[in-house]
Amino acid sequence: MADLNVKEMKLTKSMANFLYNDVTPHYIIFSKKMKKAHCTHCDSDVEVDFNIANHNKETKCPKCKAKALWKAEHYIRYGFEDNGCGIFYTKEDDCIVVHHFDIKKCYDRFGKVTFYNSKEALREYFNKNGWVKGFDNTWDCGWKKLNIREYDNMKGLAGEPCYHINFRWQYINTYTKNIGKAIVGTPWEHSCLDKIYKLKDNHHYWDVPKVFLRDYLINPLAEYLYKVGFYTLCEHMVFNGSIPCNHKEKSLMNILCVNKEQWKELLKNGNPDLDELKKRQRMTQYGFNEQEFEIFHKYFEDDTRYYRLNSRTSYDELKPLYRKTLYQLDKYAINEKDFEIGEYIDYLDMSDKLGDDLNSTFILFPKDFKKAHKEMVRRWNEKKQQIAIEQAKKRNEEYAKMRDKYIKSFAFEENNYKIIVPNGCDDICKEGQNLHHCVGTYVDKVCKGISIILFVRDVANLAKSFYTLELQGDRMIQCRGKNNTDMTPEVKNFIFNFAKQKHLIATMNMGGVAI
Ligand SMILES: [Zn+2]
Fold first, then answer.
1. How many whole angstroms from 110 Cα to the centroid of ligand 1?
2. What would the pLDDT profile of 376-385 be if each residue is shown by its tens digit?
3. So where are the chain's domains?
4. Ion ligand 1 residues within 5 Å by Cβ
5. Interval between CA 120 and ligand 1 midpoint (Å)
6. How far away, in angstroms, is 79 Cα from ligand 1 center?
7. Ligand 1 center from residue 43 Cα (angstroms)
8. Are the C-beta atoms of 94 and 213 separated by less than 8 Å?
9. What is the reported pTM?
10. What is the pLDDT of residues 432-466, one digit of tens each?
């Protein structure tokens, strides 16, 4: 741990106590064998029920009542060490300053603190324009108007990750007692920054300041939420990063993507949680009443299924259908043996793509779902196969149109070699397989007329794949043999004579000129 290159912030007694006591956990070190337990908070031996002592589980000191973790003495034979970060807010002119203090605390096997150190390791200034200036002992970004991601990715002078990136201590806590005072006279004076910290007693989030301070100036959603008493959502927004919403809207109702009716419900019930918000958003989106929502939720809102739904393009088109038939679907699902909603969605999706009438109850709710699903898969595979055949046929037709022209243009034989024009796309693929090179992937280019593929054959064995030549227009791009090998001098001689007669240009690849 290195010092900041500036004067370290002076800590009050209360702040110093906070760093020492409230960042890293307290422990009850116990030995079942010796019937001994020691609290690291009140630093005294305590009487505990050894039957409930459980290494690393939470407990409370019977004496000082501090929250603590059990630690079994035999697991920590050589002592242990905790690292953490304590965060303080202060004010300098009209800026908020955030100080990150690293602390290190070492214990011996009996829970006695053998070493303790605290140092200010990172300082960040936030001004009224939404600019930030952060520095640690090796890095200083100067005043920057940065979005959070850019700031988070800023590296040190030598490209090394610095403290603000590298920060990974397990234990973090924020000192909240002076926040109300620290924001007076800054643009955050009327924000809920001091109040949101009261919503939670442990503040394990080291990036809250920068998220909150900047959002407040640009898009103070957390602030709006706090003001209408939506504390849970506000807390979620600040400490977990985001809630599902549309930031582009102006009013809170629209930002939260709910209609008037659902907005009233949210206000009436007060302080909704995330599930409640999502529910109201769904009800807005699909016009569900409560009962409809319950059924929808039962089948479609499960996390994995939800993902499946959203990953499907056709789902949007199927959505109204689900709504219309929700009650029927529920009844059907209960009565069908082994009904699985994922399979059902697949079934409808395939049915939709096959052009079935999805308004028909015979299609929507077939008599034996398992059987109907199986039949649907069969039809779907048949259709896919049909499509593949049609595509191949089309490609061959296109190729055939060009082939006669190629035969006229490129017919050539000399010494022991001959140029052959492939019969079709299958021929080209087969050539690729025979010679273990990738000409098979050129079929698309060939059918579009971008590339021309010609086979070079030995007249002694015309059926045997030998070399493959690619042309584009009047340029020779490449000529490859088995496993992508280059031309032998004989083949090269043949190809260059061919080029000369057909007025083709050899590219660099082919030992020709740059063009
Ligand atoms: Zn204690």
1. 14
2. 999 999 999 9
3. 13-174, 190-286, 297-367, 398-510
4. 39, 41-42, 61, 63-64
5. 28
6. 19
7. 6
8. no
9. 0.61
10. 888 888 877 788 888 888 899 999 999 999 989 99
Q: How many residues does the chain have?
A: 515
CA of 70 to the centre of ligand 1 (A): 12
Tokens of 416: 């022991």
Q: Which of 338, 332, 358 is nearest to 347 (CA)?
A: 358
Q: Tell me how far the alpha carbon of residue 112 lies from the centroid of ligand 1, in angstroms.
A: 13
Q: How far is the CA of 34 from the centre of ligand 1 (A)?
A: 19
d(CA 11, CA 440) in angstroms, rounded, equals 72
DSSP conformation letters of 130-175: S-EEEE-SS-B--SB---HHHHHH---TTS---HHHH---SEEEE-
Q: Rounded CA gap, 183 and 187, in Å? A: 8
Between CA 348 and CA 346 the distance in angstroms is: 6
Determine how many CB atoms are found less than 10 A away from the CB of residue 457: 19
CA distance 79 to 230: 45
Expressed in angstroms and rounded, the spacing between residue 108 Cα and the centre of ligand 1 is 17
Tell me the CA–centroid distance for residue 187 and ligand 1, in Å.
Answer: 41
